[in-house]
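Next up, a specimen:

>
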Amino acid sequence: VQIVTGDTKVVARGQCDKLFINTAGIGRKIENLDLGINRIEQGDLIITSGTLGDHGMAIMAAREKLTLNNDLKSDTGSVHRLVAAAAKWPESIKFMRDPTRGGIAAVLGEIVEDRPFGIVLKEEKIPYNPDARAVSEVLGIDLMHVACEGRMLLICSPDKASNILESWKNLPEGVGAAIIGEV
């Protein structure tokens, strides 16, 4: 069995509420799907599966006991159907990742680090929940740096970007999918 991931939690003494739940999944590699930063090329497009920052802002609003008149909920959810839908075009997909710690800013920053290319985002195309935006403005937090727990970022060649986008929009977890930038 190949171990492909792990997760740790560090909690200060006295801050644990007696229960931590850890889960693990076992799956099969999707044939012909070869992902890696090394495959990314100039002109590739960046797609998100939905609104960004909902999870982090929902947690922060609850933690700070903000009593705003909104219905902000975490985006926590499974991404396996998003992956399966996109995997119909394996030759065009270069990179996929969930933007958890550090949000999309951290993921995209890691991609361009020490690479001969950059990434241009189209700010008006980045989908944000208005409630998450409101909480982020109250707290002074940039949503680009906020955790998303049920979203995907995907980088693909432009030839199949519209196919992937439409396949995601046909799933409940991809309704807000959008092309947000270019390499």
